[in-house]
Amino acid sequence: IFICLSYSRFLEMYQSARIAVLGFVIGHEVIIFAACATIVVATGYVTFRFKKNLQQINQLLFGIAIVLLIFPVSTIVSFEVKTGRILTIDLTKGLTIGKSESENKNLPDIYYFIFDRYAGPKSLREEYGFDNSKFFNYLKDKGFYLAEDATTNYPKTSQSLGSSLNYEYINFLTEKTNGGATNDQTVVTPYTRNNKVIKFLKSKGYSYVHIGPAWNPTSINPNADKNFIFKDGLYPGADEFTTGFLNTTIAAPIFKDLFRDKTAISQDPYNNDHRKRILFEMASIREVPEMPGPKFVFMHVLIPHDPFVFGKNCQPINEEEVKKHDHVVNYLNQLTCANTMIMAMIDDILETSKTPPVIILQSDEGPFPLKTPLPPKQAWGSATTPMLKEKFPILNAFLMPGAKKDQLYQSITPVNSFRVIFNAYFDTKLPLLPDRNYVFKDENHYYQYTDVTDRLR
Fold first, then answer.
1. pLDDT, position 25
2. Which ranges in 325-398 belong to alpha helices (H)?
3. pLDDT value at position 96?
4. What pLDDT is recorded for position 432?
5. Which of 157, 319, 374, 409 has the highest CB neighbour number within 10 Å of its CB?
């Protein structure tokens, strides 16, 4: 069992192992397989041969296993009680409901697109010297309002989406997590999946379509009426955790050989899956406008987020091609490809939608500082102002046909996105919140926040 669950670790640890026999070189895969097979056969023989003498050892190991289980289970229960995550939370309490059901017949589809780590206009221009005007002019020509000074509220996907999808700040999680002193990123996951936006729009007669990446919090949503699930990867249908786990086991080399994609050009199977998943998500959108509406569509795409698997013309690239350029060049090339994909997607949606749709085109966060590396352990609490000015500016554009755009402004942040949309289309009269920017201390204090708004301004 130990060898099966750790086999890929052995392959990784002993990649340099080589044996030359009569001029033939035996690689590390053959050596590790032979060694592990020998151990398994020998252990199996000893166990079978002396099984009557192993009963006391078996009982001892069973007792140790029970003790080992008690400690993590007690820790989990204690944590869940302290954080209150096991309690049911009504996120829609106090929500103002606008128009009645009878007035919803001609409501538009609402698309919320998150392109992960897409830098804002100011970052691209001032930090990277990149001219993105062609793409921005395309958006403006299509009727989008581009908030050129927009910034994220939080520098991490889970927290940014937990806030934007509930149109509230999530600083209350500090109190729920022992002053923010936890490294558990999943504390905010329930607020992402069971969010106010979904509940409000479902109350207005909307169906919910979800398209997500391998990242577990947004891979699927149990509240969705339709989940588009990627089934063409190394482990078909597996989420991020399952993929990561299987990659450490004997399943990895077996699946790699059995389901080898001859068209895949990357050495790392994850990179091939990453590329194919992005293409799957972008292709899935084409099916959505034909679905009976009205619909709320959420799509989270890990592009231009690394790993870098596309060139500037959206051609697939491998690790060797990536090594030819520095990180900034690879990032900008993949961002240029993202622009091409986004423009084609918007054209498809606008051409096939029966009612002009509402589209929010947004990034959850900017790229990790490329020019000045962040201190270890995501120590945003000690980040310099130049680091913040790379990370916080984001893409934020709104297409709102037939509605007043008087509540939109150049520095709007994601926490106010749906307040503006709901006020415009449902007359909810939600007040706009002050646009603030927060960092967490480090990865051991995910919910211990510091306000950095003034430093960014």
1. 80
2. 327-352, 385-391
3. 40
4. 97
5. 157
Contact status, residue 168 vs residue 157, Cβ threshold 8 Å: no
| Residue type for position 268 | D
Residue 98: pLDDT over 70: no
Check: CB of residue 209 under 8 Å from CB of residue 298. Answer: yes
Task: List the structure tokens of 283.
Answer: 């292709």
Q: Are 136 and 111 in contact (CB under 8 A)?
A: no
**Cα separation of 358 and 400, whole Å?**
5
pTM: 0.82
Residue 106 amino acid letter: N
Across-strand partners of 296?
Answer: 110, 208
Residue 328's pLDDT is what? 94
Cα 153 from Cα 453, distance rounded (Å): 9
Q: Is the pLDDT of residue 266 over 90?
A: no
**Using CA atoms, how far apart are residues 353 and 288, in angstroms rounded to an integer?**
9
Name the nearest CA neighbour of 26 among 35, 17, 37, 15.
17
Write the DSSP assignment of 217-268 as a string of letters.
Answer: HHH--TT-SEEE----SSSTT--HHHHHHHTTSTHHHHHHHHT--TT---SS
Q: State how far Cα 223 lies from the chain centre.
A: 18
3-state SS, residue 125? helix
Instruction: Please give the biggest Cα pair distance in the chain.
Output: 83
Residue 354's Cβ-side half-sphere holds a number of Cα atoms within 13 Å equal to 11
Residue type, 215: W
Percentage of residues of the chain with pLDDT beyond 90: 65
Tokens of 234: 């190394």
Separation between Cα atoms, residue 281 and residue 338, nearest integer Å: 12
Query: Quick one: DSSP state of residue 414?
Result: G
Query: Is pLDDT larger for residue 367 or for residue 56?
Result: 367
Write a three-state SS string for 52-94.
HHHHHHHHHHHHHHHHHHHHHHHHHHHHHHHHCCCCCCCCCCC
The crossing angle, in degrees rounded to 10, of helices 28-49 and 2-13 is: 150
**Measured between alpha carbons, how far is 359 from 285 in angstroms, rounded to an integer?**
13
Q: Which residue has the tokens 């060898």?
A: 3
Q: How many residues in the chain? A: 457
pLDDT higher than 90, residue 360: yes
- Which has the closest alpha carbon to 313: 340, 283, 346, 276? 340
359 beta partners: 111, 399
Sequence-distant (≥ 6) Cβ neighbours of residue 11 within 8 angstroms: 28, 29, 32, 252, 253
Residue 440: helix, strand or coil by DSSP?
strand
Nearest to 218 by CA among 234, 195, 235: 195
> What is the pLDDT at residue 253?
81
The residue assigned the tokens 């309690």 is: 87
Question: Residue 8 contacts by C-beta under 8 Å, 6 or more apart in sequence?
Answer: 247, 248, 249, 250, 252, 253
